[in-house]
Each structure stands twice: as structure tokens, then as C-alpha cells.
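[job 4417] fold queue: 2 targets
>>> target A
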Amino acid sequence: MNNLHYNDFIDCFKDYDDITTRLYRLHITSADEINAFCEEIKNKLLNNSEEHLRDHLKEIISNAEKQNNRYWLYYLILKQKLFNESFRNDFSSHYNEPLQSIIDDDVNLFIPFTERENFNYLKLANFDFIPCVIEKLNIFELCCYYGSVNCFKFLRTKFSAEITKKCLLLSFLGGNPEIMSTCLKYQKPDDECMEYAIMSHNVDFVTFLMNEYKIPIDVEDCIKYNNIQAFFIHFDGTNNINEFVEKICYFPSLWEKVLSILPNFIDNKSQALVRAAKKLQPKNIITSIMMEMRKMNTEKFFCIILQNVFIE
């Protein structure tokens, strides 16, 4: 059996990695950009009409919009173009000026709101109308979530706003290095921070936590947030082929690629793939595969599983 190497795998799955990373870190400002991106998605991830691929992509977009709701409208447009989903275009009325000033990090627009008699930076924002990774955030936490460093520094200076664990978590999504650095002075990162780093799809944050704080990657978070880069970094370190084969099956868009490369890595320890197959496919298919298992060697058995379970 050969070793698992990060560079070999990430090259094979670069299209998937590129699309998912751009979905989680969406930064689109024009109709032309979103139209071009839709075509890329169709060509790279939806090049056939298989329902499980469409469902997987819907799940990716649903996860992505919660941690990057600044671009919620564009996520809605993507879903409309890709899946013919309709939506009501009346959400702009929900964006009040204080919230918009934070999203835009417009501190000059933000300051007058802080001078009102009833202002409290701990006041919770109402996110009922758009998806968010955390349902209730206060004004200071919003600055961390959106990476609004100017508003963040203003609240720290004028109100001595307290940096909480939630601020640190959200700073990984906001992606502003100055906010994150400040939060790290007051809060110690832990496994939950790694989850948010994986969710952010910023591999630099993931490796930073690994190297500086010795926090391991949770492969279940990689699956949950569709982060194939962090997934491969994990297995590059563990070289656990059985766990790799089982867990890679939770990326439906990659099954065809998996078929082409796994023969280079497989040995006779096939139980992991069987467990994954049982979770993902109907009982009658598994039964027929298990019967075939008794008739052939391990290499042929893997081919049968991959062809019958993950490709058809």
C-alpha cells in the first residue's frame, strides 16, 4: 500500500476544492460574475443530472450561506439559477442602517448610532430573516463575524467591549487578521475554534491552529463543511487508509474520482468501505456485494463495491 500524500490528492480533486472554497468564501459583486460562476459549477460539479450530486450541492450552499451571509442575496440567486428555486426579493427592508454600517465597516455611519441614549453594544441583532451560523449575535460579535475591524476597534476604544469566546470563534469566519489577533490575546483557542477554521475554508487558519496550538483536525467537521483541503491535510498526517476510504465516501461529488485513484492505495483491509457502503446504499445492493465478496479476491471486491455502490 502506498502512503497518502496531500499534494497527490488535492491535485486530483482541485475542481471540487476550487468550487467549494469559492462558495464558502463567496465574494461576488456583479451579475456577470455570478453567471460565470454558475456555469463553472454546472461544468465542474453538475456535469450530469444525478440527483445525489444536486442534493450535495444544495447542502454545500446551505452551509456556506450561514457563515457568509453578507452575500446572502447572491446565494439565493445561485440557487435560483442552479435549481430553479424562487425567492421573494423583499429582504432589503430587514437591513437597518446600524446593521448595514457594520456589514460595510463604515465607522463614520456607525458612530451616530452609538451616541443614542439607548445604545448598548450587547444588544442582540435579529437574524430571523437570513441564515446565520449563530442565530443571535450582539453588535460587537457582528463586527467579528463580518470582519469589520474599524467598528470593532471603535467599540473596544469607546466602550471597552469585552472579547468573549464567541468573538474568537466568529473572527475565523470574518477573516480579519487584526480582529483575530486581538481575540487571541484574551481567549485561548480550542477544538471549537478549529471547527470554525474548517468552516471558513481558509486553510491558513487551519494550519495555524495545528502548528501553533497543536489542535487536531476533526475529520467529521471536514465532512460537515465540505472542506476537502483540511480533509486531506488530516490524512496526510495520519495515513489511515481504512478511515480515509470510509470518510471519503461522504463527498458524493468525488465518487467517480475515488474509483480512478483508490486502486493505488487499497490493501486487504476493506471493512471501512463496507461500513460506508451500508450507510449510503439500499440493503439489496449491499447483500449482493457481500455475496460476491466470498467469491473473489480483495482487489476485485473493491472494484465491485465502487462500481455498484458509488457509480451507478
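>>> target B
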Amino acid sequence: MDSPETLCCACYASSQRAPPTNVSLFRNPQEEWLKSREPSQKHGTSSSLGIMRQPWLSLAMGCLFQLLAVAESSPLDQFAIDMFFPIQKAAEAAEKAKRTSLSSFEASSEEPARPKVPRRFGATMAVVTTSVGIPAKGSGYFAQDVDLKASRMEIVAPYLLPQVTTNMTTLSVGNDTWIETGGSQHSQANCRSIPMFGPQGFHDMFSWASDPAVSEYVGQRSVAGRSCTQWRLRASSSIINETLCADGDIPVELNISMKSSAGGVTKETHATYQFDPLSTEVDSSLLEKPYICDHVAPPCENGRGVGPLTLDAYVFHPGLSAIDYSIEDQNVADLRGDALFICFDLLSNQSSFADHNYSLISRYSLQLSPAFGQYAACNGYPDTKPKGPVCIGGDTRLAGKEAPFFGGEGESRCADESPLGFWYSLPKAGHCPPGQAPSTTASESGCTWSIIKRAKTIHQTCLIKDHNFLASCKADFAQKDFARSSAALSAAFESEDFSKGGCPDIGGPDSKEDVASFVV
């Protein structure tokens, strides 16, 4: 189900309640936010830029476009990109513009005083992002300390389905960034460093607006009943546009729109961050790396002492040679999870299937220990560029599991059901030898997953083009039930009768001996 040069992310916790609004300057927004996010249930049932006159602007934008290329990622990290990527990359562009400025601008005597946002503050916020034409609305908390070079962004938002609420905290300290997922409490949350997002670390989100060299005044606005002055990044263009509306020195709204192009496809992302009245009181522990970021999650307690379960697992993969059939250090999915993965890739115009020779879809019958560990993001095959597979952020022996888009307490790792299905990671170190299956003590030692058989392999064009899979995806995204795409994927593997939605089995290696010599 994964694709090279993309990130297979994890899933986040359920917290149905939004943070309070209209927080007083004399109250602690973080305390209010923490109180409000107590889970209501145990787990979720849940391009060309044209000619630019200022060379420093061109240089800054060129740098940003390279960063945007990194963001041409798979749906597995889409929530993280939608919520965090715009504000991070826009800040990087502003910093680059300030460092490379060759021109001098002076503030007009007719414009209001420029905002000098406090160097240390915290505030609750509302977030709206739009990707694949789907708006996602969330609530959260933002804090930064410029002197400590640290920032924290917490966001809770329903994603795709109302009952699937995702929870993500992004912490940047110095040159490092971690993403904490899976719950409001450290006992449930997971933590990962995600290098695929490009350069990591702290970036001041607001200081550009105080510098006439990189910002310009564009008028007055009213945001949620609050009057504010609007400032625009001078590097803004048809590719990126960033504005800050501030009430004096207090940030009210940050707006970012970006376009990125890859393979002839243009992708648009929009993000709006509205800040409640802020406080300069910030708990210092919130800007420190938490303990969980140095450890993976423990095995699921409900899987200890239990024998293996059987799973029909689907995987999108290349077909250049026999080794492309290997699922060691790869991500796979159940029926609904893979249907969602394929749909999101198609609807977001990622084109990863065609661009990276991901021509085949296989179904395997697997045995997995239910003592699931932390899900690993796995990418690439020996035949892809960059060469893979490479897995990050998960357990190196235990089979990993998560619900898509961070849904559910503990990423739904130990849950039996998820309305979006599940994604799995299969570490090479946990692969059972031929003829063996995971034991009841797999949580402590030994192998954690085995292959019963490769049931069938089809060419992706049969499903996607011949059976017009995209139409099912569009209907499902409109209805928010994903039944049609799941049924279409199932039908492709149930028979070879085209009239019933079936696809022919193109064959493939079924044993280690075959893997050494079989070529598609």
C-alpha cells in the first residue's frame, strides 16, 4: 500500500470535545485546552513563478519549492501535512527571505505600526485546512518561545468521517521536530521524528510581519468580530500567499495558500489558523522533548498470551522483478484500509502508482500476533529510487498497526474495529521462518508475522481504469462511507469475471525459491 518517496504516517487519538473559545488574557489557555480534551470515549469507533524583480525573493521561493516537492506525499501523512506543513514551510520561506534580502524597504508613514508578536506566548486556536477539496476543521493550542527556539502545535480535528477524530502535537526544539500522536496522555500517545518532511526544527512563525523588507501592509480586516491589520509576505505569489492579521502585537489570524507541481499535476493546499487571546504564561515542560519520543509503544496488552490472527492483507507494489513481491519491511492494509489509501492517492493527484512503477496489487493471507507494536512508516523497494525499503518510527520486531489518519486512542493500535480500516507494518526482524507462525509469547520474543500464501496479484489498470475505481472513490468521499470502493477492491480479487468486477491473476512467486528467479 505504500509508495516510494512518500511517508506512511500513523494515526492519532480521539477527543471529541473542542477547546474553549474566548479565553481571557488572564487565564491559562493551555490549562483550558488540556481540560477540554479529555476523551469522551475509550477509543474511536471510530510551476513557474515568472520573472521576479527582487533576486532575493526568487531565491527564497526556489528554496520553498524544493521543500514543497518533499510534501508530494502519500495519503498516510496527509493529515500531518495539511495541519502542520503550511505553517512550517511558510515560516521557512519568510526566514529565507529575511536572510537573503538585497533590497531595503521603509515602512510608510501612512501604515499602522507593525506587529511585534511576543517572543513567548501560548494561545488556543481554530484551524481550517483544505486538501483534495475536503475542508478539515479543528481546534488546538499553539505556543512558542523564540529565545528557547521551541514551538508546540496541538491540533484535534475530525478527518474524513465525523466519528474519526485525529490528534496531533508537533514539537520543534532547536533543529529537531517530533510528532506526537495517539492521545492526550503520554500513556496512550506515540512519538516519531519524521525526516521525510524535509528540514526540521524551530521556525518563528510571525517575526516576518515586523520587517518592512519582507512584509507589506494590505489593509484592515475583521476576523471573528476582532478588528486587525493585514500584513502580507512580499514573496507572496500565485504559488504561495501568506498573510497575518494582527491586533496590535497580538496575532489574530494566519492565512497560508500554497500550490505545488509534480509530474504535471498541480496541488493546492489552504490553511487558516485563528488565535484566541494569548497568554505569555507557558508551561516550560510543553516546550521540552517528552520521554515517549525516545521509546516505541509497548505491545498491546490484549494481545499478550494470545495466538495469531489471520488477515487478508493488500499491498500496492512495483512489478519490475521478483523481489518486488517481498513484503518484509513494508506497509500493508486490510480491505477498507487499502481502498481508502488508493482512493486518497487518486483524488489527491499523487500519481505515485504510475510515476514509481507501482503497477501491481497483491493480496496475501497472513498470520499476525495481536500483540501489535508501534506502526512503522515504510517506503521503497530495491527497484525504486531512492532504494528501499526503509522503515522509521516503529517497532523493529513487532508487527505494527494503526487506523488511517491517526484515528483513535493509541492510534487504534489495539482496537478491534476502525471505520477507516487498518494499516500494518511488517518488520523484517519479525518475519517467521517458513512453516512457523507467531506463538502466544510473541509479545516478548520470537517472530510476529508469517505468510500463509500470496492469494492473488492483479494489475492496477484493471481496477483503476477498466473498472473506473475513481468513480467509486468520488461517491464514497461524497457519502463518507467508503463502502463502494471497498466492494470494488474486493470484487477485483474475488473472481476473474469482468462483468462482476473481477480482474485476472497475473501470477507471481509463491516461495523463497521462486523469489530468487521470478521476473514479471
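[job 4417] complete. Note on B: Residues 301-515 form one domain.
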